[in-house]
Amino acid sequence: MPTPSLIVGLRLDGKQAAVFGNDQAAAASRAVFALDAGAHVIFYGPEIPESLAKWANVGRINAKPTSTYASSDMSQFSVAFVAGSTDLVAEKIARDARAAGVPINVTNNAELSDFTLMPTYRGSSGLQIAVTTNGVAPRVASRLLKEITSKLPTDLEPQLKQVAHLSNVAREAEQQRDQLMATMEVGDKDADISASATVGNTPALQNSSPGSVSDQAPQYMDLSTLRTSANQLSQEVSVQTAASYVAHALSDLCFVYSAPEQLLGEAALAWSRRAEKNAYGEWVSALRMETRHGAGHAVWGALSSGSRVAAIASSASLPYMVPVLMELVERKQPVVIHVAAQSLDEAADVQTDFADVFAALQTNAVFLNSSSAQEAHDVAAIAHAVAHTAQIPVIHVTSAANNESSNIKVLSHQQLAAFVSQVADNGPVSADVAVQQVLDRFKHKFSRTYCQLEYSGSKDAQTVFVSLGQVAADALAALPDILKQGNTGVLNVRALRPWDHAQFLANLPASARRLVVLSGTRGTGSAHDALLADVSVAAFVGNPLVPLSVSGENVYGFGSVGVSNTMRTVLGIEPIAEEEEEQQQPETAAASAEPMAVEDDVLAVAKRLAFPEAYGTRLEARPGERTFEVQVSSLRRMTPDTYDRNIIHIEFDTRGTDLTYEIGDALGVYGYNDQNQVRSFCQEYGLDGDVLVTAVKDGQTQTRSIFSWLTYALDLFGRPSKKFYAALADFAADEKEA
């Protein structure tokens, strides 16, 4: 038996390679190997072969007579090839190469060669695959290579190009990161606290879109209500609020990277403004951050100061965090990023989308996902426990399109802190071990079961649908009805990373022959098929007992009925008819609408005014803001009246106020509606402008008169938002109007 060789790769980009010999065909093939690797070739021989002319024309290869070669020339080369020279010449060149420490390959002479060339597949993205039998059966090696490359996933090259792009982003961010770290006092904890206090007191953006008072109430609730509802059925909670509750409870600093189309992290920001304490009895600073290149450096700096850190982010911000995530994984820093997987469809509606999440998979962080509010709460707790047990960043992905609220069982602050502490005592361990340990511990302690891979359906299923997140939830909801007409199953991928081929195959029924991946990602190709690629590779290299066919169906934006019908079509079952919504004209809808339930309690308002200390009542024009009333000294319209955009020059007179303004400062200017127009509006709709209305706005309970709400708090006569037009389209009588 031949001695196994050590397979290595030489980086020749920008280096020189020497090719010797009279055998032009063999010499040309060696030269191409070096040229493809980026080397500059010096060709010692009679003349350059015609096949290398294109390289010579661009200066990548130079020809020299063999007689001009001297032993001292060898030191300038990084690798040497000999093809077709006499034995004496080959031996001399080999001695020179060994003396200079240059690896050499001599055609048909293993004794003089330091290495051999293997049949190699070269992809357009940099992928290379080589097979060797150490000279025993070269043709077998070539056939094996052909067999392997013929079964590569069709989208593998685009995915590798995406990885290359992200690597370039990482390199571009390297210099910015070094500059930032050079100026950050990461060891100065007081500096971090000061910065946190300054930014954390910045109020959240106000929702100024038109609507009734009830429309302005955010989806999150008071933190005290969640805490008192621990382990009991609480009030209705949304997916994002459930995840934010855990992030706030288990962190000292919470960074919010929200998308413009979604008020993500508003609950955490509101709790921070109200100085709500976390599970460790400490105040939490929530900071709103920008999504841009280098996003995540603040997280890194906070971790370096020893703080417990969490982040709430839209999936669009995740690719920008890739360089930092790679560093945090390498440095074993425990942090949890709660990511809302989302994108906007053509109707400007938020849809669950994993495309940006898939683009960050190569960071080697742990990726867990959830769909419902209860899952978001539980998996968030599991994510924090895994991060501290494995000392690794964990990405908890929630379904942003799931706006429904539901009753959930909430863990108290004490339970959350104790759970994380108990499992962290078993660490540090590897990521795969940590995930399984935490899942087992959560099941034992709270009697709620989660697995890395969760199979539901028939034990005799031949077709298994594989998915994750909201798409998996929709598939599981459709499964009971589909099972009445055929054997199938759904495999919910709870842990996208770490990924284990053997574990994936072990969770499939033995009868499985066909795997269909349901992808909820926009677009085609690139990183959107990462789950399909994982499943394809598992089916190919995971040594399944029987051959498995793998295919994919993209159900982005389909909804629950669309997912069900896709599954039925794959199985050859008749799809179900989608329910047609009853089209109502605005006046008909208004007439049939149920009256809004409004609590009428004059005494409650009176008590807040009479006892401001007890109720924390403050008389402010805009709660949470430091406001000034100034005079407008100049107001000029810069664009003509016929122009559809308004550019206005305004000058303010700040005399008599405490307002100071320096270059670089930002001022928020709050306009208000014309009071005469508001009075006409109230009269037309039969509203008493002096009636007081109490509502929750930006996480604070505010009491205003109807006249004040319509004048100062609502953009009543402003330009409607995109969502307004999207909702209005449902009432269009003409298709062109929609």
Automatic annotation (TrEMBL):
Biological processes annotated in GO: response to oxidative stress; siroheme biosynthetic process
Keyword Flavoprotein: yes
First-tier enzyme category under EC: oxidoreductase
Keywords associated with the record: FAD, Flavoprotein, NAD, Oxidoreductase, Porphyrin biosynthesis
InterPro entries listed in its UniProt record: CysJ-like_FAD-binding (IPR003097), NAD(P)-bd_dom_sf (IPR036291), NADPH_Cyt_P450_Rdtase_alpha (IPR023173), Pyruvate:ferred/Flavod_OxRd (IPR050722), Pyrv_Fd/Flavodoxin_OxRdtase_N (IPR002880), Riboflavin_synthase-like_b-brl (IPR017938), Sirohaem_synthase_central (IPR028281), Sirohaem_synthase_N (IPR006367)
Transmembrane spans: none
Occurrences of domain Pyruvate flavodoxin/ferredoxin oxidoreductase pyrimidine binding (ranges): 275-463
Enzymatic reactions: precorrin-2 + NAD(+) = sirohydrochlorin + NADH + 2 H(+)
Keyword Ligase carried by entry: no
Pfam families hit by this protein: FAD_binding_1, NAD_binding_7, POR_N, Sirohm_synth_M
Domain Sulfite reductase [NADPH] flavoprotein alpha-component-like FAD-binding: 625-737
Highest taxon of source: Eukaryota
Gene3D superfamilies: 3.40.50.920, 3.40.50.970, NAD(P)-binding Rossmann-like Domain, NADPH-cytochrome p450 Reductase, Chain A, domain 3, Translation factors
Cofactor(s) required for function per UniProt: FAD
GO molecular function, one term: precorrin-2 dehydrogenase activity
NCBIfam families, per database record: cysG_Nterm (TIGR01470)
Protein name in UniProt: precorrin-2 dehydrogenase
UniProt organism field: Coemansia brasiliensis
Gene this protein is translated from: MET10_1
